[in-house]
Amino acid sequence: MKDILEKVFLALDIEPAVDAETLFAKIKLQNTDDSRKPYDAEYVQKVFLNSDALNGLNDEARALIYIMADTGARVSEITGLMPEDIKLGTTIPYIHIRSNKRGGLKTPHSDRQIQLVGAALYGIKMFPKGITRYSTADTASTLINKYLRTHNLNPMDGNSLYSLRHTFKDRLRDVQAPEEVIDNLMGHKSRGPKYGRGHILETKLEWLNKRWYQKIRPRAKVLSITLKRVGITNNDKYKKELHS
């Protein structure tokens, strides 16, 4: 049914108010625990980040995947970032997920700061003023999920773009990060007692540094387009910054 709805949306050139993936995720079916299986971290590194598998996507969609892979942020939180929410000039680069003119938050606990490392830092540098191509997060999700399915990039039933969020959480658990730190990074309500001001940037960065993805090597064409977009013609210095 989900596939049929998406085909109708595409055929009639309709932008759905709700992504079919999101719509059906709210329906409780048997074995729902397996409905959103995480990707294997090694698969994400080799296929999504270090191969040409995502070359058919536009730059913004690719950047969204990179950011999601190393922040675990929701699609709506990434597409909702405004220039003032992106801090690249600080000692510790980070994004501030909060309510703004582009939209609100899913829960009060979603307001948080996430340090930028690995793939996420690379993705944000591609669009330092935010991803503005998509009018809604559901539009981005529909496009990317369709691409992942039609290009056979979901190795297991139940995989989707949202699986990257589950993979992020699993990787933090693999390095034995405290559940309170995981809850904070995921934007969840902490299951334990809350004391003081919560986890500061340096503390969260310590755990993120234990499991971030390695550097991405973009195609020369994609890199040139990215540099041209930000008005850079002499790009040798920027190439180094983009990869750093």
Question: What are the defining features of this structure?
Answer:
244 residues; mainly alpha; hpI Integrase, Chain A; three-stranded antiparallel β-sheet; 12 helices; 3 strands; 46% helix
Describe it for me?
The chain is mostly helical and 244 residues long. It has one domain: hpI Integrase, Chain A, CATH 1.10.443.10. 46% of the residues lie in helices and 4% in strands. The protein is built from twelve helices and three strands, in the order αααααβββααααααα. It has a three-stranded antiparallel sheet. The termini are far apart.
Quaternary state of this entry equals single chain
> Which bin fits the share of residues in helices?
40-55%
User: What's the level 1 CATH class?
Assistant: Mainly Alpha
Distance between the termini: 44 Å
Please give the largest β-sheet.
3 strands, antiparallel
State the CATH architecture.
Answer: Orthogonal Bundle
Q: Approximately what portion of the residues adopt beta-strand conformation?
A: under 5%
| Order of secondary-structure elements | HHHHHEEEHHHHHHH
Furnish the topology, listing elements before pairings.
Blueprint: H1 2-11, H2 20-25, H3 41-49, H4 59-71, H5 75-79, E1 86-87, E2 94-97, E3 112-115, H6 118-126, H7 137-150, H8 163-174, H9 179-186, H10 201-208, H11 220-229, H12 236-243
Antiparallel strand pairs: 1-2, 2-3
Helix pairs in contact: 4-6, 4-8
